From TrEMBL:
Binding site for substrate: C206, S207, D208, G209, W210, D211, R212
Single GO MF annotation: phosphatidylinositol-3,5-bisphosphate 3-phosphatase activity
Residues of the Myotubularin phosphatase domain: 1-367
Annotated TM spans: none
Region of interest (Disordered), ranges: 376-416
Membership in a protein family: Belongs to the protein-tyrosine phosphatase family. Non-receptor class myotubularin subfamily.
Organism: Panagrolaimus davidi
Composition bias, Low complexity: 379-399
Record-given protein name: Myotubularin phosphatase domain-containing protein
Catalytic residues (positions): C206
Length: 416
């Protein structure tokens, strides 16, 4: 990312995880903020849920556009204000001279953001040079219930009648699974448009900054930056935006928790992988990796065969010495690289953009892979009537694949 520079600086303030225990060791903050010292940053952190202060995720040195992520401000019912938090966001805004304002994308429905004030949370009000946009993405509880309903339709207790093969398509609507996915794609489209057309720096957050925030930052970076569309880059994207920034994999997937009805379980990562599948279906040659990788990741996050997705944050994984005691899923992926490559890959350095947000399709090959119809088709899960299936078939690995074109390397706009 061409960091450090005159505007942004890498800090080891969190090297012992004492500053923010759910953030990574290495963080990037505005240089102006670091110059003001740790006491100032502590005041900013205290005003954010779980101390998750806005931290840099992506930076383009050519345009000076930045993407930051955080949790909600703790303004509460009486709409508390923090002069330090306001000053910090102004520093972020000033780090991009071309930006008229800092755009704050709050992933939540505005009603939910208001309701969070009664629990001590809230959103940014009366912040100079900032404009807030609510993206209407619902909470982990709504998503959990939605997937449960969708699966009940995909897997009926009795064998469906002939001609009922399209039932999952209807189920996707009745369960709201499609509409929930659509709000994520819509939100990502808004953020990418803002960055590409207005050159605005963006702060993205939800309530705690480890669920919907991870979905939005990583999808935005996937579309903006061609490196993240390579196999190596995609692995880094998951490591950085999901694992290092504290998505609670163990809690969301119920690892080691004998309570299938836990209110903290939620398929947030499944949603995100589905969204990646939507983009691969729309741009089948723009990604170096194939759908086999997506399905493998979803299988292994449940299996716990690898240490990568165990525990809830970087600190816990380090304390458990996972690097010494378990194998990383990326070792398996890179050792079997050919299985996960797209033979039709053609590197495109420009951002992937559409004039309108993508329209969600049902990923039948994943959600219905153990359905009655799939079993009758020798477990293939194929469905000739599905447009999503045709997209899937286009990017399956082939034995006689031509050598891939040169892929993008880590550029100035990526990686720290």
């Amino acid at each position: 990312m061409n960091v450090p520079n005159d505007l942004w600086e890498i800090t080891d303030l969190n090297k012992e995880y004492n500053f923010i225990d759910t953030y990574p060791k290495v963080l990037v903050f505005p240089k102006e903020a670091l110059d003001k010292g740790e006491a100032f940053l502590n005041k900013v952190a205290k005003f954010r849920s779980s101390r998750r202060i806005p931290a840099l995720s992506w930076y383009d040195p050519k345009t000076q556009v930045s993407i930051l992520r955080s949790s909600q401000p703790m303004s509460g019912v009486i709409m508390l204000q923090s002069s330090d938090d306001k000053a910090y966001l102004e520093m972020i805004w000033k780090a991009n001279p071309a930006s008229k304002e800092l755009k704050i994308f709050d992933a939540r429905p505005i009603g939910n953001a208001h309701a969070n004030r009664f629990r001590g949370g809230g959103y940014e009000t009366w912040y100079p040079h900032c404009k807030i946009v609510f993206l209407n993405i619902h909470s982990i509880h709504a998503i959990r219930k939605s997937l449960r309903k969708f699966k009940e339709i995909c897997y009926p207790k009795q064998k469906p009648m002939i001609g009922a093969a399209k039932k999952p398509l209807v189920g996707g609507e009745k369960s709201n699974w499609v509409s929930h996915l659509q709000t994520i794609l819509d939100g990502t489209h808004k953020i990418v448009t803002e960055i590409c057309e207005e050159k605005s720096s963006c702060l993205i957050h939800c309530s705690d900054g480890w669920d919907r925030t991870s979905q939005l930052t990583s999808l935005t970076m996937l579309l903006l930056d061609s490196y993240y569309r390579t196999l190596d880059g995609f692995a880094l994207l998951i490591e950085k935006e999901w694992l290092s920034f504290g998505h609670k994999f163990a809690i969301r997937f119920g690892h080691g928790i004998n309570n299938p009805k836990s209110e903290e379980r939620s398929p947030i990562f499944i949603q995100w992988i589905d969204c990646v599948w939507q983009y691969i279906s729309e741009f089948p040659t723009a990604f170096e990796f194939n759908i086999n990788l997506l399905k493998t990741l979803l299988d292994e996050v449940y299996s716990c065969r690898f240490g990568t997705f165990l525990f809830n944050n970087e600190k816990q994984r380090e304390e458990a010495r996972l690097k010494e005691t378990t194998t990383s899923i990326w070792s398996y992926v890179f050792d079997n690289r050919e299985q996960f490559l797209n033979p039709n890959y053609s590197a495109v350095s420009a951002p992937l953009r559409t004039t309108q947000p993508l329209k969600v399709k049902i990923w039948i090959d994943y959600y219905c892979k153990h359905s009655w119809e799939a079993l009758e088709n020798d477990g293939s899960g194929s469905s000739s009537s599905s447009s999503s299936e045709s997209s899937f078939q286009q990017i399956q690995p082939q034995r006689a694949a031509p050598p891939p074109p040169p892929k993008p390397q880590p550029s100035e706009t990526t990686k720290f």
